[in-house]
Amino acid sequence: MAATIKDIKNETGLGLATISKYLNGGNVRAENRKKIEEAVRKLDYHPNETARSLVTRRTRTIGFVVNLIASNFSGVLLQHASAYLHSRGYGMMICDSNHDEKQEEENIRFCVEKQVDGILLISVSRNPECLSLAEKAGIPVVLLDREIKSDAFDCVTIDNKNAAERAAAYLISRGHRKIAVIHSEEYTGHERCRGFRSAMKKAGITVPAQYVYSGEYHSSELGYDSMKELLKLPDRPTAVLTSNYEVSLGVIMAIHESGIRCPEDISLIGFDELILPMVMRPKLTLIAQPMEEIVSEGARILLKRIEEGRDFPPQRVSLYAALKEGESVRDLTVR
Amino acid sequence: MAATIKDIKNETGLGLATISKYLNGGNVRAENRKKIEEAVRKLDYHPNETARSLVTRRTRTIGFVVNLIASNFSGVLLQHASAYLHSRGYGMMICDSNHDEKQEEENIRFCVEKQVDGILLISVSRNPECLSLAEKAGIPVVLLDREIKSDAFDCVTIDNKNAAERAAAYLISRGHRKIAVIHSEEYTGHERCRGFRSAMKKAGITVPAQYVYSGEYHSSELGYDSMKELLKLPDRPTAVLTSNYEVSLGVIMAIHESGIRCPEDISLIGFDELILPMVMRPKLTLIAQPMEEIVSEGARILLKRIEEGRDFPPQRVSLYAALKEGESVRDLTVR
DNA sequence: CTGTTAGCGCTTTCAA
DNA sequence: TTGAAAGCGCTAACAG
User: Fold this and answer.
1) CA of B36 vs C1' of C16, distance in Å?
2) Domain locations in chain B?
3) Which of B46, B77, B167, B275 lies at 20 to 30 Å from A72 by C-alpha?
4) pTM higher than 0.85, yes or no?
C-alpha cells in the first residue's frame, strides 16, 4: 500500500493542509519543511495524482488524436509533443484515428470521457462536427497541420498553398515548363495542388491533365504508380512536385527502377525533411515543414488556454516552411 | 458544469447506490432502469472517470514507454497497441525515451506517478534497474521487442538470433559465401549478428572483419556509409544482411546511387516489412516480424495481470518471424 | 504560518 | 433490490 498524505501527517504531527501546501510549493517554516521532506523520503511518498485530479479538476493529461500514427510524419510530431508536454508535467494520451473519420470521432469521445485537459488534433475529417463533444465539455482543442471548416478553433499549420507555390516557382525559375504534380486526396494535398496551379498560372503555363495525379493519402504506391505512368508519356515532364513524404518515396523508387537519372533526366521537389531525403543522393530539394515549431506553438496555445483562466479568440498560426535546396532539381537555364 | 450522479439521484429520486450499481451493469427493477436511462440522456450524464479511478484504484490507462517514437517500427507497434487497448476501454499514455536511458527511467517514473495500471515497454536499457520503481508500485510491466537482463518480467519478442540465422542460411543455400552484415548497436542488432555468425559457422564459412559493420541504432547513415565502404572493397561481398529497417533504407540508397544492380550484382536481405520494402523493386527479401501479434500478445498478458487477481510466473513469449521471399536475392547455384 | 473542516464524484459495504 | 453512510486521497476555504 502506497503512503498517503495522512501517513505523512502521522509521521510529522503536522496538519494535512500544511503538508499539502508545502507539497504544492507553498511556504512553510524551515523546521517543518525538514520534517516533511524526511517523512516523504522515509515513507517513499508520492502524491496520488488521481485524488489530486478529482479536486483540482485537472488531469494534467493531453489527448493527442492523430490521423495515422504509423506514418513517419506523425511520428516526428509525436516525438516533439511528448518532449514538450512531459517537460511541463503533462502526460500525453494518444489515440490513432487510422485515417478514418468514424474512428476519429470515437477518439474525441474517448478523450472527453477520460477527461483530458485539452486535445491536440491532426484531423482526418474537415467537418467541425466531430469536435462538438469536446466543445460541450469545455475541453480546448488545437488543430495541428490540418485545418477544418470552422474558424472557432485554434489551429497551427504551414501555409501549404504558398509553400507549394514557391516550390513550383522554384522549378519554373530553373527553366522548367513541363511540370507534373502528384498529390494526396486530403486537405494538405489539395492545398498544395492549388499552390502549384497558382504558380503555373502566374507563369502562364497550362497544366495538361495527364500531368496531374492524385490518390489516397499516405500511399507510396500512389507515387510509384503515378511516376511509372508519367515516364510512359510521349511528352514527359521535366520535373515533378510531390505533395508528401510517402508519395516522394514511391516516386524515387520508380525513378531508380527505370534507370533514368535525377536530376539529369528528371527533376524532383517534395515535402518534408524526414529520414529519406537525408540519406538519399542526390539530396532531395524540398519544402521543410518546421515540425517542432508546429507542435510547440500548438501545445503552447493549448496549455495557455488550460492554465490561464481568461478566454481569448481562436488563434490561427501559419508557420513558414522554407525551401531547402538539394541537388534534385536541374537548372535548365544554364547549359 | 457536467452532470454528476447526484443530479441523477435528484432527477429520479433513487438512491446513489442503486444508480451506481445500474451504471456498472448491476440488476435493477425495470422501472428504475428506465428512469435512470432517461435521466442520463436528459442530463447528458457521463461518469467522472477520475472519481471512479480514485475509489477503484484503476485508471484504465496503460503507459507505453517507447525507445524512439519517431521510428517507423514503433509507429506500427503503437498503431496496433492503440487499437487493441481502446477496444478494451483502456487509454494509452505514451512516453518517448528518444533512445536515451535516462529519459527512459524518467518515463517509467512518470507513468508510475500518473498511476497507470500497467506498462508496455520497448526498452533502450538492458538494465532491469529502471523498472524497480514500477515494481515497487506494483505496476506490471510487459517488455516488447527487446529483452532486458532479467527474467522477472513478461516479455514478447521474436527469436532474433534464430531469425537472422535463417536469413543467413537462406543466402548460403543460394550459393552465397561472401556475406556482409550491417547491424545496429543494441539488443536486437546484436542478437541478429549472433544468428548470422552462427549460420556462417555452421556452414564453415569464415567472416572477414571487413564484412561486419555496426553502429548507432536507427541510423540509415550507418547503412549508407557501410554499404559505400563495402562497395569499395577489392573482394566485394555477394550479399548483405541488414539488421533493421533504417539500415536497409540506407543500404538501398547507396546501391542505387552506385549504379550497381540488385540482385544481379549484389543480393540483399533485411528485417521488417514496412513501407519501403513494399514499394521498392526488386521486392526485398526479408524477415517479417509479426508486429500485430507482438503487441496483442503483450497487451493480452498485461491486461490479464491487471484484471485477474491471481499471480502467475513471468511469461516469455518468443514469436516466429517468417522469411518472406522477394526478388532481392540472386540464386548463385543456377546459372 | 498552521490546522480544522468540508467537499471533489464515485463505489461499496451493510442493513433494511 | 434498495439506500444511507463511509470512505478513496487530496485541496482549499477559513479561522486561528
Assistant:
1) 22
2) 5-47, 59-158+291-318, 160-289
3) B167
4) yes
Does residue B280 belong to the interface with chain A, where contact is any CB pair within 8 Å? yes
User: Is residue B115's beta carbon less than 7 angstroms from any atom in nucleic acid strand D?
Assistant: no
Q: Which of B65, B60, B59 is nearest to B78 (CA)?
A: B65
Is the Cβ pair B61, A93 closer than 8 Å? yes
The answer to whether residue B260 neighbours chain A at the CB level (below 8 Å) is no
Q: Which nucleotides of C are covered by protein (CB under 7 A)?
A: 1-14
Q: Quick check: A253 and B281 CB within 8 A?
A: yes
- Using CA coordinates, name the residue in chain B closest to A58: B50
**Which position has the grid cell 516522394?**
A248
What does DSSP say about strands A285-288 and A322-324: parallel, antiparallel, or unpaired? antiparallel
Chain A residues inside the 8 Å CB shell of B44: 136
Is A160-289 the same fold as A59-158+291-318?
yes
User: Chain D: nucleotides under 7 Å from a protein CB?
Assistant: 1-14
Does A160-289 carry CATH code 3.40.50.2300?
Answer: yes
All cell numbers assigned to A333: 537555364
**Pair B211, B178: CB distance under 8 Å:** yes
Q: What pLDDT tens digit does each residue of chain B (335 aa) get?
A: 688 999 999 889 998 889 999 998 888 898 889 989 999 999 999 999 999 999 999 999 999 999 999 999 999 999 999 999 999 999 999 999 999 999 999 999 999 989 999 999 999 998 888 899 899 889 999 999 999 999 999 999 999 999 999 999 999 999 999 999 999 998 899 999 999 999 999 999 999 999 999 987 667 889 999 999 999 999 999 999 999 998 998 898 888 888 889 999 999 999 999 877 666 778 899 999 999 999 999 999 999 999 987 789 999 999 999 999 999 999 999 86
Residues in a beta bridge with A286 = A270, A324
Which architecture, in CATH terms, is A59-158+291-318? 3-Layer(aba) Sandwich (3.40)
Going by C-alpha positions, the residue among B167, B118, B123 that lies closest to residue B145 is: B123
The pLDDT tens digits of the residues spanning A98-134 come to 999 999 999 999 999 899 999 999 999 988 888 998 9
Q: Which nucleotide in the DNA or RNA is closest to residue B16, CA to C1'? A: D3
Q: How far apart are CA B64 and CA B119, in angstroms?
A: 6
Of B61, B78, B275, the CB nearest to A249: B275
CA distance A197 to A209: 12
pLDDT tens-digit readout, A10-41: 889 988 889 988 998 888 898 889 988 999 99
Q: What sign for the dihedral angle of Cα B32, B34, B37, B38?
A: negative
